[in-house]
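Minutes, project check-in
Item: structure for the 230-residue chain
Input as provided by the requester:
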Amino acid sequence: MANAKEAKLSKLVMTAYSDEGYSSKVTDFSVLINPASYKHKMAATYNERESIGDAKGPLQYWRTDPETLDFEIVLDGTGVANRSTDKPTSVEDQLKKLKAVVIDYNGQIHSPNFVKVAWGTFEFKGRLESMEVDASLFKPSGDILRATVSLSFKSHTDIKEAQRLAKKSSPDLSHLKLIRVGDTLPQLCYEIYKDPSYYVEVAKINNLSNFRALVPGTTIYFPPIKKSGD
């Protein structure tokens, strides 16, 4: 026998923020019908170090790639998905509200919003990569009555969080360094590796054609480098 106080079902919610720290909420969108599934992908990239005489060299960690999230939602304008006695919201209005969250241009940040996707205990923070609308049911007037929307997001981490995740205190792990006026690559290599001679390898990894002309405001990646004898 069902409990008289049946627990409220959790709905997937997409919330828009105007800052990469996800503290300034803009608006949100709650689905009527939860996705049947979602795909959450995580990956890492490795460089294959070549050794003389070897067909293949060992893999060296390069970076952890941005996570991706893909799922589909159904927008319904018939009222079937909503048990409320209120007049159902049109699919066009639902699409307008969804776009305001995930893709519309935000003049404050000169780009679309940062988006947090939450469903139960699952949470994903990122930005929209693509949105595809597949309309499948129409009124005689041509207005959409039902549509499936495919959404693809890529995770976003601000520079402060990326530096924290890189665990800057350890010279054996990855570092991300924001370049400031006056910084030089040998000097930064000394700070991180205690050896300025690693600037050649760091310049190569970051595809720097001129290591003497670092651009302030850009980010340089310093990988784990094993010293000889380690």
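Outcome recorded: Residues 1-7 have pLDDT under 50 and may be disordered.
No further action items on this chain.
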